[in-house]
Amino acid sequence: MMWVLIVGMSIATLLPRIIPVLIVDKLTMPPWLDKWLSAIPYAALGALIFPGVLTVYPDRPHIGFLGAIVAIVLSSLRLNIFLVLLGSIGVVFGLSFL
């Protein structure tokens, strides 16, 4: 019985993921919709990350916010992602001792 449940849940979660992939290839979308859809990953990533930024140190949310600002500035300079991470972590780590 357990295997039937696992296979059933696998199919139930697989279908909503595969059907759009098969359909999107056959559709031509207007440029405005394509541009709007391309912004969704960035918006979702921001919505997932930003609450965590403010709760790095719950009693001092400005530390996480400053770390995020440093990450934004360094990434806008088109630095390597490793350098962006090191810079942001360095700021958060350094400010945590003040």
Order of helices and strands: HHHHH
Low-confidence stretches: none
Average pLDDT over all residues: 93
- Basic shape: flat
* Cα-based radius of gyration, to the nearest Å: 21 Å
The share of residues in extended strands comes to: under 5%
Oligomeric status of the shown chains?
single chain
Number of domains: 2
Largest sheet: none
Helicity, as a percent range: over 70%
Number of helices: 5
The computed structural class is mainly alpha
Give the termini distance in whole angstroms.
58 Å
Protein traits:
single chain; mainly alpha; 5 helices; 0% strand
Description:
By secondary structure, this protein is an all-alpha fold. It folds into 2 domains: 1-28; 39-98. It is 79% helix and 0% strand. Helix 4 (61-76) runs antiparallel to helix 5.
